[in-house]
Each structure stands twice: as C-alpha cells, then as structure tokens.
C-alpha cells in the first residue's frame, strides 16, 4: 500500500470517472477517515450527505453549473455545516441552545476542510480518484436539491470513483512563499516568489477570475450570506 507521502505527492483532481461502483467497505473506510478527523472541541459541527442516487447526482451537477463529473462519479459526498443536530441534542440533554452565528460557521468550515481532506487521502490510498466541488458557490440550489434542514449549510463536495484519466500534477506556490520560519509573512517577497515561479501562469488566470473587483470570491460571499439567512443562521 502507498505511503501517506506517496498519496499526497501524486494527488490530482480527477474529472473523468469509470462507472464502477464503490464497494460498501471502501465507502465506509472513506467516511471513517472523515469521522476520525480533528475537530474543535470534538463537536464535529458538520454532516456528510452520501449521494449515490443517479438522479440526485444529476440534479446536483446541474445545480453547480453543469459540472458533469458530479453526475458521473459513482459516489458524491456533500460536506454540510450542521448545527441543527447539535442544538437538538442540547435540547434533549436539558440545555438551552443559542443562535448559530458567523463564528459557528467559521468553526464548521475549518472542521469540514480537515475532515474532507482526510476522506480524500483515504480514498486515494484505496485507489480512487477525487475532485472537490465548491457547493458554497451554489449554496441555495444545492440546499434545495439535498432538502437540507435549518441551521445547515452546504460547503464542499467530493466526487469519488475509479479514475478514467491521469492528468499531470499541477504546480503550487513555492514553499518559501507559503512557509515562513520564525517570522511573519512578507507579502512583497512572497509575491516576487510567486511571479517568478512556474505557479505564476496558473495564478495569473485564477486571480483575474477570483480576486479582481466584482469577481467570483465577492459573488460567493453574497451567495453564502443569503443562503445562511434562509437556513436560519444569524449572520
């Protein structure tokens, strides 16, 4: 079996999947990895909606802008911020629950990031390919497709299946622009390293689409806020 380092080193996003189903034992292993991930206070304020139904996967693919691999992958994991179950457990225990706020959302986002990464590593260790899907950018439509209850919020999805392609790995930021030894980050120095590296070609295109005024990240923020309000968050 490949080492953890080998799995990380060869990771690529897979957007073409074979139709082979994922055996129940493998699926449970992947979910077990997410379950075992670190979580603030150990509360795990999230749920994982396992989507195997072909029709639901097709509707999700449409909801996130026609990304066909959501429908093609035999399993799609939707990681959802979920305080509804925790607040209900408080009531059952005779405790008074509070509102769910921005702070609650931030904590669940961090926990989901960790849990989904652990699931990804275990899936790829088992020989599956994965690709992350930004559910937050189509938050309201995804919530409707999944019939999500109050005090939840769709965050990211993970399409999983046997890969039908093997793309090359893509460059990342230089390590020196990412990790700072015993000092705070230096924006100018980091920018120089980014511009002077092979990462720059990817960065230039992505930055125009995401970081420019009125671009993707600003639109995502508005979508998340509206979705959160509809689902009972106090943000």
From TrEMBL:
Domain Nitroreductase as annotated: residue spans: 8-162
One Pfam family of this chain: Nitroreductase
GO molecular function term, any single one: oxidoreductase activity
Keywords: Flavoprotein, FMN, Oxidoreductase
UniProt-listed InterPro entries: Flavin_OxRdtase_Frp, Nitroreductase, Nitroreductase-like
SUPFAM superfamilies found in the cross-reference section: FMN-dependent nitroreductase-like (SSF55469)
Similarity comment: family membership: Belongs to the flavin oxidoreductase frp family.
Protein name per Swiss-Prot or TrEMBL: Nitroreductase
């Amino acid at each position: 079996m490949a080492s953890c380092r080998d799995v990380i080193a060869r990771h690529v996003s897979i957007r073409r999947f074979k139709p082979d189903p994922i055996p129940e034992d493998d699926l449970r292993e992947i979910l077990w990895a997410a379950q075992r991930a670190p979580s603030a206070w150990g509360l795990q304020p999230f749920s994982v909606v396992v989507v195997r139904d072909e029709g639901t996967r097709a509707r999700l693919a449409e909801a996130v802008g026609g990304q066909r691999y959501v429908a093609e992958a035999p399993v799609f994991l939707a990681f959802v911020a979920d305080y509804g179950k925790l607040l209900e457990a408080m009531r059952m225990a005779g405790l008074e629950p509070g509102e769910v706020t921005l702070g609650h959302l931030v904590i669940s986002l961090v926990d989901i990031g960790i849990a989904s990464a652990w699931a990804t590593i275990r899936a790829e260790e088992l020989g599956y390919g994965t690709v992350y899907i930004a559910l937050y950018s189509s938050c309201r439509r995804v919530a409707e497709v999944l019939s999500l209850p109050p005090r939840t919020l769709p965050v990211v999805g993970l399409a999983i299946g046997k890969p039908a392609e093997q793309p090359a790995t893509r460059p990342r930021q230089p390590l020196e622009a990412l990790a700072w030894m015993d000092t705070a980050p230096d924006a100018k120095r980091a920018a120089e390293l980014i511009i002077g590296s092979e990462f720059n070609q990817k960065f230039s295109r992505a930055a125009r689409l995401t970081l420019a005024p009125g671009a993707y990240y600003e639109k995502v923020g508005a979508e998340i806020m509206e979705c959160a309000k509809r689902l009972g968050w106090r943000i």
